[in-house]
Amino acid sequence: MPVSRLDQILSRYGYCSRSEAAGLVRAGRVTIHGAPAKARDQKVDVGAVNVDGKAIECPEGLLALLHKPAGYVCSHDPQDGATIYELLPAQWLRRNPPVTTIGRLDKDTTGVLLVTDVGALVQRWTSPKHKVPKIYEVTVDRDLDPALVGLFAAGTLQLKEEEKPCKPARLEIVDERRALLELTEGMYHQVKRMFASQGWNVTQLHRSRFGELGLADLKPGEWRLLPFSQSMDSKTSDDFH
Ligand code: URA
Questions:
Q1: Which of 1, 65, 104, 174 could form a cystine bridge with 47, CB 3.0-4.6 A?
Q2: Residue to mutate (ligand 1; options 106, 108, 185, 202; most atoms within 8 A of CB)
Q3: Which tens digits make up the pLDDT trace of 8-52?
C-alpha cells in the first residue's frame, strides 16, 4: 500500500481535515503498526494505520450498493431536496474525492444505486462501450401492447433531442401493466421517455439489477460495501450477488 503523510491519509479517507490531524494524533486515537502515532507529518503505509482501533476504511477505493428509496435525489445539493447522500455515512462524504453515484436514478425511482469515490469506476460502469446491463421493473398506467417488445428490441426508437436511437433493449411483459426492461445505456429519464414516446406513463420504476449486482436482502435506505478489488470486472464477479 502507498506511503503518505499521516495527515494526508486521514483527510483523504474522511477521518478529519489535515489541520485536525494533529489533534487526533495528540488524543492517541491513531496508531501505526499498533504503536501510537507520533506526528501528523510522519510518513506511513496506509495499511498500517488504525483510527480508534480500526483499519482505514476501504483504502483502495470505496464501492457500495445502496437500496435507493423513493423521495431522494441523486444530487450533492441539499437545495434539491432530500439527497441519497443523507443515507450514507458522513465520513464517506468527507473522503477526498467524496463518494458520488454511478449514474443517477430519478427522485421517484427505487432500487440499485452504486456509489464510489473512484472516478475510473464511474467511467467503467456508465460507459456505453462496456454495455453493463441494467434491469428495471416498470409499472405503467394502461395495458401493455406486446408490439413494444419488438419495437424496443429493434434499436431504432429515436427519442426527442437525442442524437442516436436507443440501443436494442429487452422488454419482458410480466402482466397487463408490468414489465421488465433491460437497458445497456443510460440516457436521461430513458425508461420513462421510451414508454412515453409510445403513449404509456410509467407510474412506478424500480431498478432491480445493475450488471450482476442485485439488492439481495437490503431494505430501502440500506447499503452494503462491495469488494473493491474485483469491481473493475463489472460482469463476472460472484461476490457481487
Ligand atoms: N430511466 C428513467 O426514466 N428513470 C430512472 O430513474 C432510471 C432510468
A1: 1
A2: 106
A3: 999 999 999 999 999 999 999 999 999 999 999 999 999 999 999
Please state the pTM of the whole predicted model.
Answer: 0.92
Mean pLDDT of 117-137: 93
All domains in the chain, ordered by first residue? 3-55 (3.10.290.10), 63-128+212-232 (3.30.70.580), 133-210 (3.30.70.1560)
CA 15 to chain centre: 22
Q: Is 140 helix (H, G, I), strand (E, B) or coil?
A: strand
What values do phi and psi take at 40, rounded to 5?
Answer: -70, -20
Kindly list the distances between the CA atom of residue 116 and the CA atoms of 36, 66, 176, 201, in Å, as whole numbers in the listed order.
31, 11, 37, 32
How deeply is 111 buried, as exposed, middle or buried, from its count of CB atoms within 10 A (0-12, 13-18, 19+)?
A: buried
Which is higher by pLDDT, 229 or 175?
175
